[in-house]
Amino acid sequence: MIVPMTQPTNAQRLVRVLFQIRHLKTGKASRAMSELGLSASHIRVLYTLAHTDRAIPMKELASALDLTPPSVTSLIRRLDEAGLISRSADTSDSRVALITLTDEGQALLRAFYEQQVSHMDALLSTLSDDEQAQVLRLLERAAAALTDASDSASEHCPARRSS
Prior knowledge:
Strand content: 5-15%
Strand order of the largest sheet: 1-3-2
Radius of gyration: 19 Å
Largest sheet: 3 strands, antiparallel
């Protein structure tokens, strides 16, 4: 990690704080993820699958995750080995693999979510109700600005428009 010689900027301080928060890996769910060899990308796949009401073709999943199909294939292989997703052939086209979340995948994702909520409860408990509301308002506004900037950049990138 690069350590600035001068007083860190607010952006640098924010990066450091978010890094510290993101890497809180205490709890049963995080240990289970580590033991299974799962990364944040694997959790993104599980989260995406949990928020659909049907089996998803691999190509559609790759698009939803903004990843290449080979990258998703690698992620799916590991999740399948861990019993967290299931693959089946599309009845109308056997070349298409449909992906669904298993009960085990739902349970792990739920435990991970509950662990994250517990961490955020601990973080927010150090603040008054007004401070909590202010922090959340500011983070929501910053997230919206980043989303808008990302969407704008995607519109101007030829490679992005073709996907």
